[in-house]
Amino acid sequence: MTKRDHFGSKIGFILAAAGSAIGLGAIWKFPYMAGTNGGSVFVLLFILSTLLIGLPILLAEFIIGRKGQADAVSSFKKLAPGKPWYLIGWSGFIFSFIILSFYSVIGGWILSYLVRSITFSVSGNSETFYEDLFNSVISNPFEVLAGQAVFIFLTIWIVQGGIKGGIEKASKWMMPLLLIFFLILAVRSMTLPGAMEGVKFLFVPDWSYFTWETALLALGQAFFSLSVGVSGMITYASYLPKDTKLGSSALSVSLLNIGISIMSGLVIFPAVFALGFSPDAGPGLAFIILPAVFEQIIFGQFFLILFFVLLLFATLTSSISMLEIVVSIGIKSKYDRRRRAAWVYGSLIFLLGIPSALSFGVLSNVQIMGMSIFDLADFLTSSIGLPLGALFISIFAGYKFSKSELTNELNLNKFLLNSWRIIVRYAAPIAIIIVFLQGIIKVLM
Fold first, then answer.
1. Strand partners, 319
2. For the chain, first and last CA: distance in Å?
């Protein structure tokens, strides 16, 4: 039996954890959520939600993971023997399975667009070309399944290499490249004539958008973008040595997530405003509006390729964390089975994702609760699985550990420690329950 793997360095862990958080939530979902909810006000509420609610829950996952030194299920069993808390780990297993099944579909779309942009196939003269192209891509069963399969293969290939040789190694080169590409794209976007209108949209508040619904959406975005609630951070933190400072690591991950989210806005909105497009295009912003924007820029084809490479890296760093959750629970302490488990579970996730992949084409007429199969999978995870997981993780960490245990684990001063306990015991659960109920009511209505 091989020994349990560990991260080789603190920076490797931070980049891997940040990569888990910085995925489609930060680069795809954040811009269109900001675009449809007033821009700067949503950004402000998102930052506050991330630091005041998301960060404490992220730290709770770090504590559980490092103290448990095992997969999520085994960690809860070790920390609360004989109690049903380990079901939180199993819920993370199930919901990670579902998330990756439809997440890989979007990864396949990104690969399709990357190939098309490299072969100069993402350009047209008509106003409806880009929308027609997107609808054509997502409804083509062969293209979406091929893209999904390649994306899952890349995810499996990284995870089967282990923590240090696979996940950490991949994160150490993908994350810096992602940041470099972001800077290049942001600078290009902000140097366009009229780009400052997009910058104002992001940073100058229009308080008419300051509503209860906007606050709830920003809080939900904070949960989604930090990847809390499915035990992913518990899993990653279980590979940490005891001398790693959890507080500074959690803060670093949160700040990186906020920074990348804002940078994605600086890539998209200055260009959108400069070229006369609407910022409230919704989910199609990355696949419909941006290609049209880049076509009107000098060397736009190069920047479009760069954007989809960036988007692929961000999506992969999140997908490997989700597969790692599943694999770590599946193999338990039999670490020599990692390689086989990665291929088996990855293949099963691909099969589970086929209905989601086909839900915009041959299965477009299949509706469950008024939703497509793809949208149902998204709803079950982002509106039910993540909030409930975050709720129970927050309660467990808030009430299970004594002050002396927390002092040893966190190395925080008395004020910060007491503030953290108040948030995870009271403020975070209340906020999560409100977000959860809002999501359920929205669907039922």
1. none
2. 53
CA atoms of 121 and 133, how far apart (whole Å): 10
Mean pLDDT value of segment 361-383: 87
CA pair distance 144, 241, nearest whole angstrom:
41
| Number of domains making up the chain | 1
Which pTM does this prediction carry?
Answer: 0.88
Q: What is the DSSP letter of 168?
A: I
Say if 174 falls within a structural domain: yes
Q: How many residues does the chain have?
A: 445
For residue 4, is it within any domain?
Answer: no
- Distance between CA atoms of residues 77 and 87, nearest Å: 9
CATH (domain of 191):
1.20.1740
Quote the tokens at residue 343: 């291929």
Structural domain containing residue 417: 10-444
Contact 232, 28 (CB under 8 A): no
Pull the structure tokens for residue 226: 């930090």
383-423 confidence digits (pLDDT tens) = 788 888 999 999 999 999 888 888 877 877 888 889 999 99
User: Is residue 96 a part of any domain in this protein?
Assistant: yes
Residue pointed to by tokens 């619904």: 213
Task: Estimate to the nearest angstrom the gap between the alpha carbon of 54 and the chain centroid.
Answer: 13
- Are 56 and 251 in contact by the 8 Å Cβ rule? The answer is no
**Helix and strand numbers, DSSP H then E, in the chain:** 22, 0
Q: What is the DSSP string of 63-110?
A: HHHHHH-S-HHHHHHHHSTTSGGGHHHHHHHHHHHHHHHHHHHHHHHH
Asked whether the beta carbons of 237 and 250 are under 8 A apart, the reply is no
CA proximity to 52, closest of 432, 434, 370, 411: 432
Q: At 156, is the pLDDT very low, low, confident or very high (cuts 50, 70, 90)?
A: very high
Q: What does the pLDDT look like over 20-64, one tens digit per residue? A: 777 777 777 788 788 888 888 999 999 999 999 889 999 999 999
213: tokens are 């619904």
In a domain, 124, yes or no: yes
Q: What is the distance between the alpha carbons of residues 252 and 96, in angstroms, rounded to a whole number? A: 24
Angle at alpha carbon of residue 340, lines to 336 and 341, rounded to 5°? 90
The contacts of residue 31 (CB under 8 Å, 6+ apart) are 264, 265, 268, 269, 285, 286
Tokens encoding 83? 């109690």
